[in-house]
Amino acid sequence: MTATAPDTADAAAETAHFRFFELEVLRTRRLGRSFLRVTFGGASLADFRSGGFDQSLSLFLPPDGREHTVLPSTDEDTWFGAWRGMPDEDRPVMRSYTVRDQRRTPEGVDEVDIDFVLHGDASPASRWAGRAVTGRRILAIGPAVAENKSVRFQPPPAADAVWMYADETALPAAAAILERLAEGIPVRAWFEVPHEDDRLPLQTAADADITWIVRRGDGRDRTDRVLGALRSADVPAAAAPYVWLAGEAGTVRATRRHFVQERSVDRRSVRFTGYWRLGASEEQLLAEAYAGQAPSEEPTSEL
Ligand SMILES: Cc1cc2nc3c(=O)[nH]c(=O)nc-3n(C[C@H](O)[C@H](O)[C@H](O)COP(=O)(O)OP(=O)(O)OC[C@H]3O[C@@H](n4cnc5c(N)ncnc54)[C@H](O)[C@@H]3O)c2cc1C
Fold first, then answer.
1. CA distances from 98 to 14, 80, 167, 267 (A)
2. Do 215 and 193 touch, CB atoms closer than 8 A?
3. Does the N terminus or the C terminus of the chain have fewer Cβ atoms within 10 A?
4. Residue 92, ligand 1, Cβ within 6 A
5. What is the spatial distance between Cα 126 and Cα 192, in angstroms, rounded to a whole number?
6. Nearest Cα residue to 194 out of 219, 230, 170
């Protein structure tokens, strides 16, 4: 269950919605033990249009030993084939991330923040982020219009409450969603993070009740602990709750089952996305998606 492969393939097709941007690292800041914020700039960001909420984008990171990302083509019709055809040692690594924030500074500089989870040096994106320094340039396929399909948080107008689950990879998206919610809307949220100091400050005008679940040990019991927190929670009744779930695919699937089967939420009101899967790199998820093996993230799919 991943949005990554279809997302990126569709991004190639939906030329009006997405385009390539060159991002240059301006600065980095540690937010918590697991989080590193990388702030990017670059002239092309003048045309970047994040729709906010859980807006995602695809990053292309240089292979080890290279400073900047180079692609043979950034033409909307040919880039994918050109990228896939590159020798393994030259091919940039493609990864999905969230636009945590976009702004224009008082000096007129366009900036985009991406919050990377640092989960070790063995994985390309985590390694790249951990070593990011000012001046490094990467490429991204990102939003050219604010209304686009990479904003998955789409509550129907009748929704009278928002219920959320996110692990650390989806916390940037959850934080951005919370910042955009209307004043007073009831929110019940469960956020799962590896360490105490990953409980990042969140801002919202919504009436939000947030439970933090700090992982223990190697996290093997993560899904059980999340389900335990959900089951023991006192959730105020709502006639039409909208449920947004994102994080590790297996845990997301279990939380979706909880809301549909145990809390009787209409499955069409549950938006769930596997942001990563234990034991599988994004290449493997991409390969599965192209082979048609990845379960759909769409609300109509079977549990
Ligand atoms: C729409 C979308 C938005 C996302 N937004 C963000 C974001 O804003 N910030 C963010 O940090 N991530 C985000 N992710 C998740 C991120 O794309 C994955 O974690 C990705 O696998 C990281 O790439 P990597 O090269 O570090 O690891 P990979 O090479 O893809 O994976 C290598 C190994 O590491 C494991 N792994 C992957 N991620 C983690 C992790 N976080 N903790 C522990 N093990 C892991 C895999 O299971 C695999 O075994 C998002 C994903 C999607 C689909």
1. 19, 21, 13, 25
2. yes
3. C
4. no
5. 19
6. 219
pLDDT at 293: 63
Amino acid residing at 219: G
247 CB within 6 A, ligand 1: no
Whose Cα sits closest to atom 51 in ligand 1? 275
Angle at 92 between CA 86 and CA 97, to 5 degrees: 140
Residue 80 φ then ψ, to 5°:
-65, -50
The pLDDT tens digits for 253-290 are: 999 999 999 999 999 999 999 999 999 999 999 888 88
Q: Which run of H or E residues covers position 115?
A: strand 110-117
3-state secondary structure of 229: helix
Domains annotated for the chain, with CATH where assigned, are 4-143 (2.40.30.10), 161-290 (3.40.50.80)
Q: Report the separation in Å between the CA atom of 275 and the middle of ligand 1, taken as the mean of its atom positions.
A: 7
Atom of ligand 1 nearest to the CA of 194: 42
Which three-class secondary structure state does DSSP give residue 128? helix
78-131 pLDDT, tens digit per residue, is: 999 999 999 999 999 999 999 999 999 999 999 999 999 999 999 999 999 999
How many whole angstroms from 60 Cα to the centroid of ligand 1?
A: 14
